[in-house]
Amino acid sequence: MFDPNTRFLVVDDFKTMRTIVKKTLSGLGYTQIDEAEDGKVAHAMVQKALSDGKPYGCVVSDWNMPNTTGLEFLKLVRASDPTKGLPFILVTAENEQSQVIEAVKAGVSNYLVKPFTPADFQKKLEVAWAKHFKAQAA
Amino acid sequence: MSEVDNRLRSFFDEPVGLAFIQAVRQTVEMYFGERPIMTRPVITKDLQVGYDVAGVINFTSLDVEGSMVIAFRREFILKIYAHMLGESATDITPEVEDCVGELTNTIYGLAKAPLVDQGYRFPMGLPQVLRQVNKEFEASKCLELPFRFDSDKELSLVLVVKKLVKQAQSA
């Protein structure tokens, strides 16, 4: 599972959902949690964190946002060498098959469907961590 | 749609009505801890919606056109807000409005997913939040589905449909 010192970036255009995700992460023991209101702002934060030498360890992003959507943000992250391996969880209520396929093709680490429980969220985090780090940890 | 008046069958495709009803139930139950009870639906061509705050998503694509409204009484949205966020509010603040937007977003997304998979091309939509809702929706098909817990009509799902065409599914 993610180290307790992992830096999380929570992205959603609704403060309500950012607060719910942040509280859920806090309940799981994570304390380093930043937030952004859309993918454009979030991408700039990812770049700055990298240049500051304090990169994010996981992104939890809404899909449906104005300006830059979660999917567009994911593609930007995956297109850049220093961030292409960053664990990235998309959160959405819109989980039709075509969207899931699109997200998988873009390299999403996991997909969390709203509304969710803390237990749902924890499972998705565990799977995302395993996808990126299990081989290294073994 | 056995729990809904049979007249609804002539107004809405059954999967569409059920998907939205189920989305309201699932979302409210998850965030409020109780499943709301749907009361008698109201069908009309021009619907007056009188509530304190509402989230609205207008959907327009080649095949579907209309609006989904999730309307709340003040006391009830304040209860949901407290339950969702663990913080109390005494009035409809910008934070409570944000909560209405998120609920609307979640309900629409949940309803949309199975419908898109069945061939109804509902587009993505971003919600608007309206205060002191007393808006007249004009449409060829308009349905108000009130839900309650203890008292009557604490929230309502309103579906306004101007166009609804289902695409044939490819094999």
Furnish the topology, listing elements before pairings.
The complex is a heterodimer of chains A (138) and B (171).
Chain A: E1 8-11, H1 15-27, E2 33-36, H2 39-51, E3 58-62, H3 70-79, E4 88-92, H4 97-106, E5 110-113, H5 118-137
Parallel strand pairs in A: 1-2, 1-3, 3-4, 4-5
Helix pairs in contact in A: 2-3
Chain B: H1 14-32, E1 37-38, E2 42-60, E3 64-72, H2 74-85, H3 94-117, E4 128-148, E5 155-164
Antiparallel strand pairs in B: 1-4, 2-3, 2-4, 3-5, 4-5
CATH topology of chain A: Rossmann fold
Low-confidence stretches of chain B: none
Sheet with most strands: strand arrangement of chain A = 2-1-3-4-5
Identify the biggest protein-protein contact and residues per side.
A-B, 22 and 25 residues
CATH class of chain B: Alpha Beta
Descriptive overview:
The complex is a heterodimer of chains A (138) and B (171). Chain A is an alpha/beta fold. Chain A has a single domain (8-132), classed as Rossmann fold (3-Layer(aba) Sandwich), CATH 3.40.50.2300. Helix content of chain A is 48%, strand content 16%. Chain A has a five-stranded parallel beta sheet with strand order 2-1-3-4-5, with helices on both faces. In chain A, strand 3, helix 3 and strand 4 (88-92) form a beta-alpha-beta unit. The two termini of chain A are 13 Å apart. In chain B, strands 1, 2, 3, 4 and 5 form a five-stranded antiparallel beta sheet that branches. In chain B, helix 1 crosses helix 3 (94-117). Chain B is built from three helices and five strands; from the N terminus they run H-E-E-E-H-H-E-E. In chain B, strand 4 and strand 5 (155-164) form a beta hairpin. Chain B has one domain: 3-Layer(aba) Sandwich (Chemotaxis protein chec), CATH 3.40.1550.10.
